Amino acid sequence: MDTVTTGNQAAATAIFDLLKQFITEVIGEEFVEEMDIQPSSSFTRDLEMDSIEIVAFSEKVKAHFGEHIDFTGWLSGMDLDQLINLNLNDIINYISVCR
Amino acid sequence: MPLIQINGKAVHIQELNKGAAETVVMVHGMFSNLSVYYFNIAPVLAAHFHVVLYDLKSHGMSERSPGGYDLDTMSDDLLALIDGLGLGRVHLVGYSFGALISLKTAMRFPGRINGLAMIEAPDPADDKTRGIIDDYSREFLEHYISNFTDTTRVQMGKRQLERNHRMYEYLFYQTSIKQDMLAERGFFADNGIRALIHQPLLIYGNRSNCLQAGYFLAQRIPGAVLQEIEGDHNVPVQAPEQVAASLSQFLCAEVAMV
């Protein structure tokens, strides 16, 4: 059981690092340096990403995970409040479940 | 980020359900970008269609351009995009300024357009609409604040304000967008509108300050159907599910007719 949990955590950490890299590519390193990106960081409130930046981020997620996940479909099921409150953990969990 | 060269400029596009038999091209409004469709409306249409979203020049992630914001040039750009993607006939959906571009494109290149849907097309001759750019600038910023930051908890961040401000400053003071829009004042009097062979769907917010333009177009264009949805000019953001359902129903019926 411990092994499984550790494995999951390692996978979650790897996904987090990847998402952080995508965010850096989208908004630029100079801005990311000033931020403390955490799994609990929300895209709009904490990272101040606007909608077109979230589009660019989504494309990177889709390009990397390909057909394993229906990322756009998942996002399209969200209302405005859910999109506003979306954080990295939500995406890490979604990707983990899909894989 | 997919960029293609259109008339010498890099254009940001997004495609969903590539390979579907029929294509819908969606045109966003002034000071906005393709994200207005990306999250909630395009995925619904992508259940049936290949959907192409693009950022207008100087908007979103497309390359800047100092001129060519008149409807002829904007529709030339749209046709070049359709050609560049190797598409024959497409369906068009436009919102606000994008609706005017879509209408102009259907008027000029009727054989290339199947279904035509216009959301919140404003009348460029309207006094209220002539102040269009100032109104839109406020709405644009409010749109971001109300939709992608939570005003009850946080103000728009410094980086976003700067980004928005840069685009605003560029479009207003370094491009011909204002003059080009003013030069379109007579557009609704164009006989081509009365002669339109398409029977478009017109979607307006029932509280929109553009609703009169909707009544005018519904009366002027043979076979046009007007649908009012609860909301104002921002109806695609306020009621994306209803807008998507209306578009989907309309475009699927257009396909059935063909």
Automatic annotation (TrEMBL), chain A:
Give the top-rank taxon of the lineage listed in the UniProt record for this protein. Answer: Bacteria
Originating organism: Taibaiella chishuiensis
Name of the featured protein: Acyl carrier protein
Automatic annotation (TrEMBL), chain B:
Which superkingdom heads the taxonomic lineage of this protein's source? Bacteria
Pfam families xrefs: Abhydrolase_1
**Annotated signal peptide:** none
What InterPro entries does UniProt report for this protein, alphabetically? AB_hydrolase, AB_hydrolase_1, AB_hydrolase_fold
AB hydrolase-1 domain residues are: 23-151
By its UniProt entry, which PANTHER family does this protein fall under? AB HYDROLASE-1 DOMAIN-CONTAINING PROTEIN, HYDROLASE, ALPHA/BETA FOLD FAMILY PROTEIN
The entry's protein name is Pimeloyl-ACP methyl ester carboxylesterase
Lineage of the organism: Bacteria, Pseudomonadati, Bacteroidota, Chitinophagia, Chitinophagales
